[in-house]
Design brief:
This protein has 225 residues and is an alpha/beta fold. It has helices at residues 28-35, 55-66, 81-84, 102-115, 135-143, 154-167, 174-183, 188-205, 211-224; strands at 44-48, 68-72, 89-93, 118-123, 146-148.
Length: 225
């Protein structure tokens, strides 16, 4: 997060539907790669980018289209990989955080190749930064097609805020959007969280969401951190 910006850690379930994915310069390359499916070289793609950039959202849209089974990389240790590749496609999330499953990930890549299963893998960083000890796995990942999804840019943060308020049927002035966009963490989760909090606040007060209200909520959240 940018210094001085607020992050929110609330258990809010995002809607990972296609219509809720907003394309901007920060994610258009990744979007184009997933839209190009099934024309993937080697039937595999790495999706790399920071937390909050929208990897899970994009992955969920693709999974629905491709009929993919989604699972965290850590779950590979207890998964029947042979059965897993019977799915037409597989999405493995957070591959850089799953210590101890290198053997399983390498085996999965080989099985997917043999069976013609499409495989998408998400991570925050490029494979060289994962601390892999299995040279064959690292070599395989280095050769795999990869695309980066960037931290949400200002235009995307603003657009997401506008859409989230509209989804909740809240009329919010443009100055409120600008105020929030400049102060919250640049992540889609942060945008969802602050809109949910302001929606509850407006309901409790029986008032519209205003810039002063937004300022009070942000101050309160900052004090809680």
């Amino acid at each position: 997060a940018v210094s001085g910006q607020l992050a929110f850690d609330l258990p809010l379930e995002p809607s990972f539907s296609r219509e809720n994915f907003l394309v901007s310069p920060s994610n258009e390359a990744a979007w184009a790669h997933f839209e190009a499916w099934p024309n993937w070289p080697g039937r595999m793609l790495l999706l790399l980018g920071p937390t909050g950039a929208g990897k899970s959202h994009l992955g969920a849209i693709w999974a629905e289209t491709a009929g993919a089974r989604i699972l965290p990389a850590a779950a590979l240790a207890t998964t029947d990989l042979q059965a897993l590749v019977q799915n037409p496609a597989v999405l493995v999330e957070d591959a850089d955080r799953a210590a101890g499953v290198e053997k399983e990930l390498f085996h999965l890549i080989n099985l997917a190749t043999e069976s013609g299963t499409f495989l998408a893998v998400t991570a925050r960083q490029w494979p060289d930064s994962w601390g892999l000890k299995t040279k064959d796995l690292l070599s395989r990942l280095r050769r795999a097609p990869a695309v980066e999804i960037g931290e949400p840019d200002d235009a995307l943060v603003r657009a997401v805020l506008v859409k989230l308020f509209m989804d909740r049927q809240l009329q919010v002035d443009a100055t409120v959007i600008e105020f929030l966009a400049a102060r919250i963490e640049r992540s889609l989760a942060a945008a969802r969280s602050v809109v949910a909090i302001l929606d509850r606040e407006a309901l409790a007060r029986g008032r519209a969401v205003t810039r002063p209200m937004a300022g009070e909520v942000l101050k309160r959240l900052e004090a809680d951190h």
